[in-house]
Amino acid sequence: MSSMNILHDKRIDAYNVLIDMKVRDYLFIAEKILEKNIYQRKRVRSSSTVYSLLKDDLSKGCIIPPIVLGLTRLTLEQLNISDTSDPNQLIEKLKENCDSIVILDGLQRTYTLMDLEKELSSNNNSSDLDSYMKRTIRLELYIGVNKIGILYRMLTLNTGQTPMSLRHQIEILYSDLLQSDLEDITLVREVEESRARKLNSYSFRDVVEGFNSYIERNELPLDRADLLENIQALESLSLENQQRDLFKEFVLILHEFVLKVKELSENWEFDSESTQISGNPFARTATSIFTKSQAITGLGAAIGKLKEKQLISDIGEIRPIIADYQDDHSIQCGLDKMIVKLDRIKLDSKKIGNAQRMFFTYFFRELLYRESDSFLSFEEAVDGAFNKYYAQVF
Amino acid sequence: MDRLKFTIEGQQIPFQPRFDKGKGFEMIDLNGQGIVVDISSPLGVPEIDFDLYSSIALQKRNVKESQICEFACKKNGATLGWLIPITALNSVDHDYNNNRFFIKAAYAALHAALDSNLQGCSKEIHLDNTESLSVCDIYEDSICFLVLNKFQISDKTSLDPDCLATNLVARLYSYGYRYAEATILPSNFTAKEAPIGKVRVDTKSGMFNDQFIRSLFYEILPRVDNPIAEFLYLYQVIEVFIDKIFESEFKVIVADLKSKQVDSFEAKKSLSRLMEEMTRFTKLLNRYTKFEHSKHSEVLTSGKSLLPDSNNEQNNLVKIVYSIRSKLVHETRIFHNSSRHSELSRFNFEFSSLLYDIILNFNLDEPETR
């Protein structure tokens, strides 16, 4: 008889439900998940050995380890289930809420299950297919878990396996924000980026990178060799308050800063006659400077580093600082100077984007740290950041 | 052709690129396992005919992403090719990210990078968990691509693209670029700042079709990491040309003797002078090549620092170079320390720039000087 078992995960304040499910039901849900979440990791580019063995074993009726799913929008109460509920009731609810489910662990097993279904279908052997679809597998379902909690659980579940980048996991988790407004902010996908330059619009990819930089405390995009650094990210995440939506807080900080600079600089725009540079400017408006990926990752890394060094106790301290940022008469000169410095960095660096990210990290640390000499002084922060960048690199 | 290989579950599998007009490049496995890896690039995908381009991989230590160079014909300004650091293929942070001609050249470079394995420059890629790669994941950051537009070259110049390629490879040598395959990048590398932006190129064929000149820049020098050996190989360019001068002028002396325009005593004197290496070297610079010697003042400056005890006329290019050659041949031992190596490396860069002008401008048929 089908059963259900519910445990409370105190670390991430979520419920873990162990449930048996027919392959047919699981594949229905899995196909919807993969269809809706474009960021859910694609199948491993593996040679066939391991997964074809698994497929063979599955066709012989082997039991695979539980596949782990996360349900992000609904709580246990909203689902109205308990240990004594009918598991089919939960399965039906899951089918209705596929767009809120992510596969935390077991994606490659899912693909193998799908492959076997296709294979049996193409063999026109309906009895084998029918018996396969009626077979039972085990699932673990995290319910009511917030996204930072899921991220933490994804990292812990995936550690030791072929690693998936933290950035990718953030993409998977927060992709639902693409479909909904975050207060009055819109996140747009890469293909829509030409429209991303409205004041309240940000590129989802850039914001994900910025948030990744916050968690990693590092402005640089990870290269392939660094994927195992997930362990470090895990340590950083374990220090975060997992009751709050840090991603949302990060986006709101960014948006508040962009609005503030626009306002204080009185809609500053680049003037090619007064500012001499080698080629194209980094950006032509105050807003476009700080909505570029380099600035967003710099902001994330700077806040992350302030937190790591215990110079702030919480990311929540940053928004009030920005709100208090007033009467900085240096900001227009500072923006001119910033464009010149970014141009110099462009000419001198091996990788322009990475070097500019480093500059922005120093800039935000100078500007937003209360004990810094350049605290809330834009032009001094630009000078200080450039000097630090230069000392670091040359 | 040696294909790029990626490691999957400990097994090396060869891959080849496939280009899709909508998506760009992906790599497909050649073992028939159906493995496909996307190749990401933030540059928009152009409409491109790869057959119109040829690409050569170069390598330079500490190359910067902004060091993108557009080579244009000196006569008519037509773009003939590009020099593109590999990092610029995977970036929109440089000034060319919206230049459609650059983007086509960049995709031609990507094609070259993915179509064969640049020996010694690629990294080991474990593909077990990978959905996409960038070209910077595959190769070292020191790689650059010299991309030539064959159609433009044949349409706007009378040159053979291979000849122009050797011209540019030789020109870039003095800026620290080396033909990439099997290159050893010297450790004491102090190259000049590389050219960036639009650079006009003299499209004379010069002696760039010469077999030795080609071998020198494609095979010999890229494998040399000792500045003494480098100098001696570079000096071979002088030897090649002064040999040609000897052969040519010797024929004239013999002909003059046969036609009794000179007597045997005069002929013997002329021959004796011609047999002196310094004489032929002087003729090479003063008679058989035409270019501004003053633009090679750095050969004098860096040469003087190598010959501090010498009191010969130090403003004479020939004497400086010949003195260094003699010093290296007869007193190689005194150059065996790192500071001397570094000085000699610097001199070699300047010397190679002088040699470029010699190769470009050498002409045995200069009538007024004969």
Which secondary structure elements does this structure contain, and how are they paired or packed?
The complex is a heterodimer of chains A (394) and B (370).
Chain A: E1 4-9, E2 14-22, H1 23-36, H2 48-59, E3 67-71, H3 76-79, H4 87-96, E4 101-105, H5 107-122, H6 126-133, E5 136-143, H7 147-158, H8 166-174, E6 186-188, E7 201-203, H9 204-216, H10 230-238, H11 246-264, H12 286-290, H13 293-308, H14 318-324, H15 331-348, H16 352-368, H17 378-393
Parallel strand pairs in A: 3-5, 6-7
Antiparallel strand pairs in A: 1-2, 2-5, 3-4
Helix pairs in contact in A: 2-5, 7-8, 7-10, 8-9, 9-11, 9-13, 11-14, 13-16, 15-16, 15-17, 16-17
Chain B: E1 4-8, E2 11-20, E3 24-29, E4 36-40, E5 53-59, E6 69-73, E7 79-85, H1 86-89, H2 100-115, E8 132-134, H3 135-138, E9 143-149, H4 150-156, H5 161-173, E10 178-179, E11 197-201, H6 211-220, H7 227-258, H8 264-275, H9 277-286, H10 297-306, H11 317-330, H12 338-361
Parallel strand pairs in B: 4-8, 6-11
Antiparallel strand pairs in B: 1-2, 2-3, 3-4, 5-9, 5-10, 6-7, 7-9
